[in-house]
UniProtKB/TrEMBL annotation:
Keywords: Methyltransferase, Transferase. GO terms for molecular function: methyltransferase activity. NCBIfam families: egtD_ergothio. GO terms for biological process: methylation. It comes from the Bacteria. It comes from Sphingobium lactosutens DS20. The lineage of its organism: Bacteria, Pseudomonadati, Pseudomonadota, Alphaproteobacteria, Sphingomonadales. Residues 18-317 form the Histidine-specific methyltransferase SAM-dependent domain. SUPFAM superfamilies: S-adenosyl-L-methionine-dependent methyltransferases (SSF53335). This is Methyltransferase.
Length: 318
């Protein structure tokens, strides 16, 4: 009796897409899992901590660009747009944009529902007259925007160089999907991390305090908890490497010894030194940025960068 009552409850908690992605990723050669699964509550909290790390320049650089150039964005985009933010997370940069451009509505989209609702409530308190209309979902899949913004011109906001977490082909597909979703009179404000000194890049993804390591290793804890896995957390180490040919930082989980484990009833083996490739973070030169945007159906109209040229904020039109 207890068993039959328990079993459906346990099965229901398993996210089928998570199960599918992890089982497929662990079965392939070399092993690789999609980075979207980092962001459970703990992963989202660790990512927030990453954004404050001294080594992790993207967030503070992009925030400074938004503060400095918000009025330029407002001038180029005009007032009264609905801002649609892709992967809103904690939305800490968003207030700078909203303050500058005075939008008609704000639609944050994020896969992590808990986090999204907390941050949306906070924004709604800070902007009491702004309709805040959160959408829980994976922006890599087809989505519907809220009815309330139909007919409004849109400004897509895709900060943080999240586009870099996609392979260039997938990035182009996503940019095209955004263009379809946002409409013909839309604009897009997008953050892109630039190619730079290798050591600086590696330090940003392998910080001295070990927060990025904890973020990467949290995926194993999530797999164990949500997919009834028995992966030994102490059997893995965080690795960050620069792949020069593909112009990307790669994060891996490296097996420190030969490992045998199970996930959702499937058995896996890893040799010592073998890795699970958990994330790529592509970096773009100034010309590459524009080529990528054009391939995705967007015309760059203005672009801002910091004094060191670490990060680019690009405004494009459909
Ligand atoms: C969310 N994304 C843009 C981050 C990045 O820099 O690629 C994720 C991250 N991974 C490790 N540190 C930060």
């Amino acid at each position: 009796m207890l068993l039959t009552e328990d079993a459906p409850a346990r099965t229901q908690r398993i996210d089928p897409a998570f199960r599918r992605d992890i089982l497929e990723g662990l079965a392939q050669e070399p092993k690789a899992t999609p980075p979207i699964w980092f962001y459970d509550r703990r992963g989202s909290e660790l990512f927030e901590q990453i954004t404050d790390l001294p080594e992790y320049y993207p967030t503070r650089t992009e925030t400074a660009l938004l503060k400095a150039h918000g009025p330029d964005v407002a001038r180029a985009a005009g007032a009264g747009r609905a801002v649609v933010e892709f992967g809103a997370g904690s939305s800490r940069k968003t207030p700078h944009l909203l303050r500058a451009i005075d939008p008609a509505a704000y639609v944050p989209i994020d896969i992590s529902g808990d986090f999204l609702h907390d941050s949306s409530a906070e924004l709604a308190r800070a902007f009491p007259h702004l309709p805040v209309l959160p959408v829980v979902g994976d922006f890599n899949q087809p989505l519907d925007l809220p009815e309330e913004i139909s007919g409004m011109p849109r400004l897509g906001f895709f900060p943080g160089s999240t586009i870099g977490n996609m392979d260039p082909g997938a990035a182009v597909d996503l940019l095209r999907a955004m263009r379809r979703l946002l409409g013909d009179d839309a604009m897009l404000l997008i953050g892109m991390d630039r190619i730079k000194d290798r050591d600086r890049l590696i330090a940003a993804y392998d910080d001295a305090q070990g927060v990025t390591a904890a973020f990467n290793l949290n995926l194993i804890e999530r797999i164990n908890r949500e997919l009834e896995g028995d992966m030994p957390v102490d059997g893995f180490a965080h690795r960050a490497v620069w792949n020069d040919e593909k112009a990307r930082i790669e994060m891996h989980l490296e097996a420190l010894r030969a490992l045998d484990f199970q996930v959702a009833g499937a058995r896996f083996h890893m040799d010592r030194g073998e890795t699970i490739h958990t994330e790529s973070s592509h970096k773009y030169g100034t010309r590459d940025e524009r080529i990528l945007l054009r391939a995705g159906g967007w015309d760059p109209v203005e672009e801002w960068t910091d004094a060191e040229g670490l990060f680019g904020l690009v405004l494009a039109q459909a």
